[in-house]
Amino acid sequence: MAKIPLLFCFFLSSFALVDFSTAAPKKFVGVYEIKKGDFSVNITNWGATVISVILPDSKGHLADIALGFDSVIPYINDTTYFGAIVGRVANRIAGARFKLNGKEYKLVANDGKNMLHGGHRGFSKVIWSVKEQKAGKFPYITFTYRSFDGEQGFPGNLAVAVTYKITGDYELSVTMTAKALNKPTPVNLAQHTYWNLAGHNSGDILSNTLQLFASHYTPVDSGLIPTGKILSVEQTPYDFLRPYKIGSRIDKLPTGYDINYVLDVSHPDHHGMKKTAMVKDNKSGRSMELWSNQPGVQFYTGNFLKDVVGKGGYVYGPHDGLCLETQGFPDSVNHPNFPSQIVNPGKVYRHDMLFKFSF
Question: Is 238 left (phi over 0), alpha (psi -120 to 50) or beta?
C-alpha cells in the first residue's frame, strides 16, 4: 500500500491521527498548519512539536529546514526531542532531585541518575489541547496543557500554554507561558527544533556560520551537568562572538557542541527580547536570526544523532542539525548563583522567542 504523502496530511488541519486516551473525553493527536504565502509551519499537539518549517532559498526553491519524521507515530517513542516543547524543566537536573523551601523533591531519572527534559513523560510526551487556531495576516495556533501536582516528581499544578505565530514575512514567534496554581515549582521550558537551513536532508551543518551574542558559558562535567562556574568564552572553541563556521573548531571538543551560553544583555532589545544568535548557510543563502528574553541558550550540534530514519527515509547522523534552545541555566535548582527558575503560585513564567528568516 502506498504511503499518503506527508504534505497531504499537513493540509488536513485537525485530522485525528491517533487516539491515545483511555478515558472520556477523548483526546486526539492531529497535525496543524499555520501559513503565510510560501512560508508554512506544521505542528502536532503531541508535545506541541514543530514537524516542519518550509520556506524558499535565495533562488526561490522551497525546502523543509526542520529535522523530523513523516508522521506523528515516530514522535511517540522518539528520544531526539525533534521539534518538541520540553519541560517542566528543560535540560538536566543533577541526581534527579532538588530542594525547595527546605523540602527535597525526588524526580524521575531518565538520563542515567539525572533527569533530562522533564523525565520519561515530560511535556514532549503528552497530548496538548488546541485552544485556538486562526488564519489571516498573522496566523497562529495555541496549545495548552495542565500538569498535575507530582507529575514526574515536580510539585504543584501548572497551567502551560505555547503559541506559534507567523508575525511577519518569514518570521515565527514562539511564546511559552506557565502559571503555578498552588505550589512553588521550577519551570524552564525550551523549544527543541533541530535546524538545517540547507534543508533537513542536506547533510551536516558544519559549514554553517554561527554568531552567538554570549561572552560567557556554563562549563559542565562528564555527565553534562554544570559545575556552577561561569567562564569566559575567550580563547576557547566556545567563542562565537564573531561569526565562525561551526565545524572550524569542533574537533577540539569530545563529540561536538552541547553547552549553555550566558547571553549578553548589552544588545538592543526587541519588544523585551535580546539578540541571541545568527546562523547563515551559504549553500542555500538562508539565514536565521534568533531573539529571546531568556538568560541562556543551549547550543547543540546533534552529536547523539545516529541512524535516525527521518522524513522521506533520510537517515540523520551526527551534526545533521543544530539546536538553539533559549532557556534558564541548566540545573539552576541546584545552583543558587544561577538565575532562579522558581515560579510561585499566582505568578506567570513567560518565555519569548522570535525566529527571523531571510535568503
Answer: alpha
192 flagged as catalytic = yes
For 20, other C-beta atoms within 10 Å of its C-beta total 13
Please tell me the least confidently modeled range out of 12-26, 31-45, 102-116, 174-188.
12-26
pTM for this prediction: 0.92
Cα–Cα distance measured from residue 156 to residue 149, given in angstroms and rounded to the nearest whole number: 4
Which residue, among 58, 55, 52, 62, has the nearest Cα to 39 in the 3D structure? 55
> In 10 A of CB 188, how many CB atoms?
28
117, 192, 335, 351: the active-site residue = 192
pLDDT at 271: 79
Q: Encode pLDDT of 302-340 as tens digits.
A: 999 999 999 999 999 999 999 999 999 999 999 999 999
Kindly indicate the confidence band of residue 270, based on its pLDDT and cuts at 50, 70 and 90: confident
267 is catalytic: no
Sign of CA pseudo-dihedral 330, 335, 341, 342: positive
Three-state SS for 279-342 is EECCCCCCEEEEEECCCEEEEECCCCCCCEECHHHCEECCCCCEEEEEECCCCHHHCCCCCCCE
Greatest Cα pair distance, the chain, in angstroms, is 59
Question: Residue 93 corresponds to which cell in the numbers above?
Answer: 537536573
Angle, CA 97 vertex, CA 176 and CA 107 arms, to 5°: 65
Cβ atoms of residues 356 and 346 within 8 Å? no
Q: Which of 319, 325, 335, 351 is catalytic?
A: 325
- Number of Cβ within 10 Å of residue 106's Cβ equals 11
Question: At 25, is the pLDDT very low, low, confident or very high (cuts 50, 70, 90)?
Answer: low
